[in-house]
Design a protein that fits this description.
mainly alpha, Arc Repressor Mutant, subunit A, 2 domains, elongated
Length: about 170
């Protein structure tokens, strides 16, 4: 069991430093505060009050995780919004994000897990509580739904109308 007073002292003394550390790496105050909050939530769950080094190592790991997530999201936008040799425009990326937001929660979760989190079919099946075969059927339906939303969006740029939803080229499990 943690000493509450020691944790409060740690929080009061180190929170600004953790936020500053995260902001220098993530760029926005909001993301930095979210990261720092997660660091201290994890610190609270420790059996004993962790040291300052633990806080910074945890912050570093969370920053790296956020950066990986950004790359995955960017990769998904690139794959979903590709129009020939040119990369997707900012408008295309926004259109894809908006279209994902209009999908059913289960479809959005599957697309995000598969493309953003790079989870293979078997891991997606565990996440969704279904068989691997069902994942492939659901993924096909989710891609089709995303394409339909993109095509129906009247404010989408013309390049979105030609979006080719990629199919997975790897193992089926």
């Amino acid at each position: 069991m943690q000493d509450t007073g020691a944790f409060v002292d740690l929080y009061a003394g180190q929170y600004p430093r953790i936020v500053a550390y995260a902001q220098r790496r993530l760029g926005t105050p909001e993301e930095a505060e979210d990261c720092a909050a997660e660091v201290f939530r994890l610190a609270w769950e420790q059996p004993a009050t962790p040291g300052v080094g633990w806080l910074f190592v945890t912050a570093k790991n969370l920053v790296y995780a956020r950066c990986r997530q950004r790359r995955r999201q960017s990769g998904l936008i690139d794959r979903l919004g590709r129009d020939g040799a040119a990369g997707p425009s900012e408008d295309t990326g926004q259109a894809v994000r908006a279209a994902l937001g209009r999908l059913e929660e289960s479809q959005r979760e599957l697309l995000m897990a598969f493309y953003w989190d790079d989870l293979p079919g078997a891991r997606c099946a565990e996440l969704l509580g279904c068989s691997t075969a069902a994942v492939w059927v659901r993924l096909h339906r989710a891609r089709r739904a995303l394409r339909a939303v993109l095509l129906a969006d009247e404010v989408a740029p013309p390049t979105v109308a030609a979006v080719a939803i990629p199919t997975y080229q790897g193992e089926l499990s």
